[in-house]
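Example record

One chain of 130 residues, shown exactly as stored in the release files.
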Amino acid sequence: MLHPTQFQVNEAWIAFQLNEAPVHAGEDGDFNLIALMDAASCFLLSNALVPASAAEPSKLEARSLLKKGRAHKKELPKTLFISSGQPANLLAAEAKRQGITVVCVPEIELLLFTAEAREGFKEFTARGDP
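Predicted structure tokens for this chain:
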């Protein structure tokens, strides 16, 4: 089982879907929020709104996620963990292109990292904050 204490800051990132249900954005449609998190600190590095109709983040969205994540420490991680249930082939390909090792793991292995962020997002959206 993976645990934050196994990692140094910026050694590994986790890509995951932050929302449980698509977020409605009026006339713009419904979106999923894909986030990148540092595995050691559980700090959310970046996120991207991806149309709910899309199976996964586009190549451009994948590049943007990694670029915004890199801005925090001016470097990329060695490893990117992606849930084996998360469609993210383009994100995985872009990460590999940039020299990051991509590891697909069962979602349950990532819950220790992602559960609090998901719960916080769920509470935030339930309040109806802008």
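Notes: Helices lie at 59-73, 89-97, 107-127.
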